[in-house]
Amino acid sequence: GFRHELFKIFLPGNAEAIEIGAVFLLILGSSQLFMSLEIGASGVFHGLGLTQVPSKISIVFNLIRIPLAIILMKYYDFYGVWMAVTISSIIKGLILSVLLNKKYHNLA
Fold first, then answer.
1. Contact 11, 17 (CB under 8 A)
2. What predicted TM-score, i.e. pTM, was given to this entire model?
3. pLDDT in tens, 38-85
4. Residues with Cβ within 8 Å of residue 46, at least 6 apart in sequence
5. Cα–Cα dist 36/59, whole Å
6. How far apart are CA 100 and CA 94, in angstroms?
7. Per-residue CA distances from 95 to 31, 35, 59, 77 (Å)
8. How far apart are CA 22 and CA 39, in angstroms?
């Protein structure tokens, strides 16, 4: 797939690194939509002067990455770290989107 081809540009001839990089893109790529939701919703909250809402959520779920990564690494080796980042990003994006939706309906 394209993710393999992309890493071949940067790491030609290193099959192991290409495969690891391709898995990295697969795992983290699955959270990109949610990262976008998180960034957008955080921007709206900041624009409304409600900076504590996204900050608290970000702090909590970024801290959760550490124990989650430790747990997942037992089963998925270093891929567990990337999985923890992905899972926490998905949760942050969903929570901030739901909170923003509630805030929007309260303003209307």
1. yes
2. 0.89
3. 999 999 999 999 999 999 999 999 999 999 999 999 999 999 999 999
4. 54
5. 17
6. 10
7. 14, 11, 13, 28
8. 25
89 within 8 A of 31, measured Cβ to Cβ: yes
Environment class of residue 93 by beta-carbon count within 10 Å: exposed (0-12), middle (13-18) or buried (19+)?
buried
What is the C-alpha to C-alpha distance for residues 98 and 33, in angstroms, rounded to an integer?
15
**Whole-angstrom distance, CA of residue 92 vs CA of residue 87:** 9
Which amino acid is it at 16?
Answer: E
- Identify which of 64, 60, 69 has the alpha carbon closest to the alpha carbon of residue 96: 60
Q: Output the CA torsion sign for 4, 9, 15, 17.
A: negative
Nearest to 35 by CA among 101, 108, 103, 94: 94
